[in-house]
Amino acid sequence: MRRIGWFAGTFHGAFIVFMLAPLVVVALVAFTPDGYLSLPVHGPSLRWFRALLADPAFVESFWISIRLGVVAATLATAVMVPAALAIGRYRFAGREALLGFVMSPLMIPTVVLGVAFLRFLTLVRVQGTFAGLVACHAVVIGPYVARMLLVAVAGLDRRVERAAVSLGASRFTTFRRATVPMLLPGIAGGWLLAFIASFDELTVTIFIASPATTTLPVRLFSHIAQTTDPLVASVSAVIMAVTTLVLLALDRLYGVDRLFAGGGR
Questions:
Q1: Which of 42, 129, 151, 165 is the most exposed place for a label (fewest CB within 10 A)?
Q2: Domain made up of 55-261: CATH architecture
Q3: What's the mean pLDDT in 226-255?
């Protein structure tokens, strides 16, 4: 394997430190025993983690964000699988327009999307409901799933499907037993990215959430607007720990490199 030069190694090392330093600082601040933002110079303490568990509003918002991310990511994946297969495999009139439509939420400012969603949900009288949040989040995170699936579709081996058909398999059986297993890395990777994007979404959610459907990012934003204390750092540390554990588990069970490469061969 070709070795990198000292300059490239130094640059990459500095870049990694630059990216990780804020996360390390936030994690250290979460263990402070003081009532203000500071590093744990007086020794580590679990004071703010206990305060977090004792705050029912934050706990409820955490579980709302989890449910919202799971349902929205699953809905977006179910819609984008046939769309990606159509765009990636076939040439038809309006194909580029369909691709642009699927990717359009990435091009529109989130503030504009938030106002548009608020107006639409108000017209159909589902503003502030969990179903409305799911629908809007599915639209916002759909492009993340589509990108992963389009890569996976491009790497499909059509010979496997032809072999299944030649052996008498129906179209549905071929799709279920041959196509879906080959698409699984792209489906899993897209779902994971969509879940993270939904869990972290703030700007759009501010416009369409209600007191009964306040997600964790919105709760954090409101808390920071009112006061500044290490509780926010403790919430961030918990989110980073959960994300790290999920990625480690996926890497152990499946392989993150295979997941985000969009192919499992």
A1: 42
A2: Orthogonal Bundle (1.10)
A3: 79
